[in-house]
Protein: UHRF1-binding protein 1-like
Amino acid sequence: MVSIIKNQLLKHLSRFTKNLSADKINLSTFKGEGELSNLELDEIVLTDLLELPSWLRLTSAWCNKVAFRIQWTKLKSVPIFLSLDEVYIKVETCEELRSLSMQHGLSSYTGQGKYSFINKVIDGMSIAVNTVCVTFESPAFTASVQISRILVESRTPKWEKGDLRVTRVKEVGRGQILIFKELQWQTVRIEAKSTKDENLSPLRLLTNQAHCRITIKKRLSDCFIVGSRLVLILDDLLWVLTDSQLKAALCFVDSLTGLIQKSTELTRTKKAARKLEELPEYQAQMSQQARSRDAAEASSTRIFNRYDVVETSYHFLSKRIDLHLCDDAGGGRSVHPDLKDGAALQISLERFQIDYYPYHLAIGDRKHWPVYRETASPHSQWLKQALTSFRTSLLDLIEPVRSQHAPLGRSNVASPPSSAGEKQTTPQAEHMQKRPTLPQPTGNPLKNYLLSQLAKLMTSCVILRVQDFSLYQITTNKRKQMPKEFVTGDRIRYNLPVEEMILHAEFTYYYYPGDIGFPLPPPKFYVQINPVQVRFDVCSCLWLNAFLLNLHHSLMATKPQQPAAMPYIDVKIEAIMPRIIFDCSVDHPNQKDRPKSLHVEVSRASVTNVRTLEHSSRADLAKCVDTFQLGSLFYGADFPAVFSDYNVVTEKFFQHLRGTDNIRSPPQVVASSIPEMEQKLSRELLWTESKDMWCICLEPVWAEFYGTPAVGGNKPVSFLDAVPLTLWVHLKFSEPVEKDDKVQHELLKRTSPQSGRLLPQSLGHVNEKDPCSRVADIHVLAYVSNLVSVQINHYQYLFLLRLSEEANELTTILAIDTKRIINAPNHNPSLVVGAMVPQVEVTFVMPSQSPGKECSGGDLESVFPDSASLQEDNATASVPSIPYATKHIELQTPEEPIRYQMGGEIELPRGQGIGENALASTNIFPNNFNTGLTSMKKGFSSIMNTLDSALKSSPDDASDTTSLRSGDDSSDSEKYVFLDHSSDIGDKLLGGVDSMFSVAGNVVEPLQPLEVACEVVEEEATTTSPSERSMDSSSKRRDLVSMSTFKLGQVEFVQQSEGFTSVIKVQVSRVAAEECSSIPWDELQNKFDCRSRAWNEIPVDGGCRPQVTARLTHTVVPGELLNRMSLKNWTSDKLEARVQDMDLELNMSSVVGLADLFEDEIIPDPLPMQIALDNMKLHLNEDRPPSNITSPGPIPVDLALSKLCIHRGKDGVFYFEPQTATAMESAVSPFESNGSVQRVEALEEINRQLLIENRELKRRLAALERVSEENHLLRQSSEESQVLRSCLAVAQDDVAHLLEEKRSLLDRLKGLQDQLDQSHRSKR
Structure:
């Protein structure tokens, strides 16, 4: 008996082992126990059996002892137990990829029979391994991995221990079975050492206990593995790395990147065809009949649907990762005095998760993806729109004039959830209910071929999610205090739900099964950042910059020099409620009005290099460029511009808004047959648009001071009122640009022969007489369409002065570190920023000089709305409760919490509300931004709408009592009821496939029940208001202040920097002043918040000269850095300004107050300046009380300055001189000659001619502006027509789909009727 069993064991094990004999097997038949010793496995067979990647080869595998235990009478319920003592494995990389033709995996060794009892026994085995040692060898490094205490067991679908019979879920109707296995180990120790570079530090990593959960789906007919889901869950991970160790790790990874990339592409194309056939979407396409799901499903089917593996995926999850980065001594450290001895940075990540889906159909949805909410992510809509646009462009290649009603595919924003982008794939049965539309055959064989290939388009998607993270400020020998947060999530401030991630990033890559050169959509990279805060810290920024630069430079030194090329990828980054905090470095307890921090906040920020209709279209860029055309600073050569300045609006912006900056010629496919068309197609055929133009949209941005003791530490004081801002950024790359001959010819026709600059069409004028056309590395155009309102007092001014010193210190040392670390002393990066603001209003708040004369209105009414209108607006804007959606979330502000209850109401603090326009309009911030804002000025309606769309659509968050999606069959809560028999929110959150991501001690805390949230809201609503009013009244300021508001019309701003030299140029078209000698501080703040609502832009007379022009030059000459004070000795500044045609009326109290306001707390170094005054009038009213009792009364002072020049040198002495023509020309135009009278006369003649030409150009400009507006409307109409075209295509596709279903149903009904008639005839 024993010998028979031994022979059977030898028969089966000899296929996997070497030199196995009967004397190595000890067997006790009746006990069901056995033992094998010195077992050597066949590495070739094991390589194929484990389906190792083609870049890996198993060289040896050996086990010293194997013991097994079999309970013969309980094989159905108790698994076979295998125990291995020590396992040694050697693996090496292959120079060339192994052939995949012989790799069939486990199915080639288990036979092709049906799934039987033997397969159940084998799949249910439990394995325990004491130690596994893996030695990895590659040409670049060697590594060893030691894993201890490994245990492999079968689990229930809820990943609990149970009877072996409940560890499988079988669906006989589909012929499939699900198997659940869990792999655990106690510790993993990884060591790696370079074999090429001895200077690289060895790498060591130690991890704690981990769980690996695997769900396997097999076919019952042949035991073939259809798909699997693998989840690797690690406990808390702590890793301390120096920059040399991190450098070594990146070098090790980089040495394998090429092999892994080739292997991945080969494996993906080979396996994708097989995976494609198993996807329900593709099965529905291939079947030409509509199927419906039975109303009453069997219990096994419901359970199977709940845990089904629709597609293969891999997941990594860690509850917490703590990473400590340290820098080694050497040239990689910053030159800052506090960083010369090194520093350390700590990064903490909570619930770090990576998901990888290698085989996903592009037209399929993502509802079956674990812990993923497709409807809550704007990324899904972006992908659908991009895919629809790609299909349209591809079909237009073969049918340029095809009808706009052609079926493009069922993907659009307005399409119902049954479209191709919203296929329900959670259980496979629902795929049969809503199948994708099969492209209808047409008479055009080329079109049919394109549609058939598009139906096979697949994606490989990588998702990174972080629930919360903290990046702490660096610690040094001098900064040993508790670590402070540098960049961190703002979950507590806004009370985000547990399931909301702070960081969500997705990378999507498109491909086709098999190696075919068919056009592909460009890869997509999307990042969504929920509220985060950044605390500005000079040392942390400098250390991080030096650390990353040193790391990058070391990696690039090991590679051959290659020109930098921008990858072709669509990028979209969105951030909700980010804020930057600038803290005061020194505490001033005796200064009650001195703030402790400045908060710069944005409701919603987006960064993208894709032209979409949402604030980043070419029409928006054209509108921005048109605005810059109205200014003379950006194109003229007069002061404050000089001969060698950079261009602000370069040719690139004009080319991009016309679409003539493509990186390659537009595709042209003219073919009469499929083989001929295949020769002209390529993967990058439609990758034509330039990706180096970025749009940054901030809607809106505002700034507030916090920590002022006089108003309460947690109450904000407005500094910058909310204003929308759009930035257009061009990054210059040195890659060649391919253009079509016609495009080049068109550009040459519109190029100036004098300067070579592109002359725009219908976009205003460009300075044709500029002999110099310089382009910087980065060009930024800032577009502001609203009033910019700022207020500031003396102590806030001091705060900003100290902050500017820190910013100067940061930029200077950043430039020094960059040049030194990358070893490029001659490299001078350049940056140009231009801004055009229609109006800037700066309010200077000062102590009142006449406390007995409180202002009751007067001049202030022209600056702010009066109190009556303000109370009216507050009364209409303060809505006590607004009906909204269905869920509860609490937004915490420093003042009072804003409780947000979906399905109930929004309860705001007193005096705050939401404008009707903000709730009714789908555009969060329309063009007239100030119309829809009430006293709720910070745009909280934007975040409310965003959170509402992100939360109300999630099936996991559906309420038991009220739900917007209670009738949706795809709701996960409906599918979970059968197994859980519970409606608890925690069970729903962790039910189904999501339970794979929960471990004991690593479970996400569920949300509080909705009833508790409702009680809290009601409690707040019923709280008595007298106590609240008393608290508010006790914290109000009753002191009187004076204010002076300067209105600056059409402000043009240019900042350019190159190396260690920077220049700021400012030009103001008009200046006006408004004053109020006495006003309560609280009333001033309330009216300041409402200032921008009633603002209307005042047109500027183009024929007038600008009243103020200034040029500030900042130069840094680096020297020896002993301490922070050494930086002041490196810098030199010079101010040149011209004031002309200005008429101001000011009170003497305001003049004295302004002098006190601009007084610094330290004695500054004199700023050299040269100011020219031309035709300036100043009327000074004496409003101060007289100092003598014999004073006859206030007497105003009138000053009229025709021409005056003010000089100041480094000694601080002011010189007042009469302004002469020669002196002024030399002062404000440094590039002109000083010694030649003939040269001056020639220049004056040129100036007269230029004035005549300017008058003519201004007359033409008026006509061109009207044409430009018409062009804007045409561009917008064209883009809207594209959207409508897609909508119409989807509608026709829906109609075709319904007609096809109707025909199918009629055919089926006819068949049933024939069967019924035949049965009647047979009965007769």
